[in-house]
From TrEMBL:
Lineage: Bacteria, Bacillati, Actinomycetota, Actinomycetes, Mycobacteriales
A molecular function (GO) term: ATP binding
Pfam families: ABC_tran
SMART domains: AAA
Domain ABC transporter: 21-249
Transmembrane segments: none
Protein name: Metal ABC transporter ATP-binding protein
Family membership: Belongs to the ABC transporter superfamily.
InterPro entries the record matches: AAA+_ATPase, ABC_transporter-like_ATP-bd, ABC_transporter-like_CS, Metal_Ion_Import_ABC, P-loop_NTPase
Region (Disordered) location: 269-292
Keywords noted in UniProt: ATP-binding, Nucleotide-binding, Transport
Length: 292
């Protein structure tokens, strides 16, 4: 079972501009008899945008947790940079949204780092918070209570919080889930701007690939203990997804968007829940149980 104390499987390395930000070798993660993935080899380069897709419960958040060191691998090894930023899944905050200002939220990102307390620590903290707010264009509303801000503004502040540590690897757990298309676009642009300006690698867990499709270099697609890694053109195909799901899945490109028909659930793209009435020619006759 996944164990945070399996520290020997995860090595944190000093950030090195010449090295990849993360390398999985023959990695395995399981909870009891449930294997989320096995024999996973994946190297994430600086500046790379990796989307993590898959149905509910396939292990997307667990993948981020391994990178964060919250879950230990059950096999293989992981080497990862110490410069990680994290945008967690949005959820109801315990604190009073009218009592917490945007800059307080961003400051929490600094408090987790190594700048200490005292006057120098406070000045340093203030500079880091101000720089992160400016980077995401949130200075104007940084002193407003979180509860008065729109979902898009709040998400911008969460991005700022993740940037306070100057990450080389930015982990994003469904950061678009409650945003309208305009704000989805703004937040993705913000993350991609960081990727381009600082060569920061992005690992982006999402149920919807379309808002990020223009930016994605590679996809890690997890389904029922199996996975595929490749460019969107390699992975998001009728043949590959049918093989991965072990059932008939059809992938259509409509106006530069991906529409997936079939699969276990309807979550990851413009996805039509009704399976086709007859198997597609590509899927017909294919073995249904195809390990990866
Ligand atoms: N600490 C844990 N102990 C036991 N099982 C766990 C633990 N963490 C995750 N799991 C199980 O591992 C599976 C993968 O969970 P995970 O949250 O990674 O999936 P996900 O792909 O992110 O799902 P979703 O799309 O619903 O957010 C689930 O079945 C979950 O119940």
């Amino acid at each position: 079972m996944a164990d945070p104390d399996h520290s020997s499987a995860r090595t944190v390395i000093d950030d090195d501009p010449a090295a990849p930000v993360a390398t999985f070798e023959r990695a395995r993660l399981a909870f009891g008899s449930r294997v989320l993935w096995d024999d996973l080899d994946l190297t994430i380069s600086r500046g790379e945008f990796v989307a993590v897709l898959g149905p509910n419960g396939s292990g997307k958040t667990s993948f981020l947790r391994c990178l964060l060191g919250q879950y230990g691998l059950d096999g293989g090894r992981l080497e990862v940079t110490d410069a990680i930023g994290y945008i967690p899944q949005q959820h109801a905050d315990d604190s009073d949204p009218m009592a917490m200002r945007g800059r307080d939220l961003v400051g929490f990102g600094v408090d987790g780092s190594r700048w200490g307390v005292g006057l120098r620590g406070r000045l340093r903290r203030r500079r880091l918070v101000d720089a992160a707010l400016a980077e995401v264009g949130a200075t104007a509303y940084a002193n407003a209570p979180m509860g008065l801000l729109s979902g898009g503004e709040q998400q911008r502040l969460r991005v700022a919080q993740a940037l306070t540590t100057n990450p080389s690897l930015l982990l994003c757990d469904e950061p678009l889930s409650s945003l309208d298309p305009t704000n989805q676009h703004r937040v993705v642009e913000l993350i991609d701007e960081r990727r381009r300006s600082a060569n920061t690698a992005v690992v982006f867990v999402t149920h919807e690939i379309n808002p990020i499709l223009p930016y994605v270099d590679r996809v890690l697609y997890l389904v029922g203990g199996r996975f595929r890694i490749g460019t969107p053109d390699e992975v998001m195909t009728t043949g590959t997804l049918s093989e991965l799901y072990g059932s008939d899945v059809e992938v259509l490109r409509v106006n530069r968007r991906l529409v997936v028909i079939g699969g276990e659930d309807s979550h990851h793209c413009d996805h039509l829940a009704e399976p086709p009435t007859s198997p597609t020619p590509a899927a017909a006759g294919r073995e249904r149980d195809t390990g990866v």
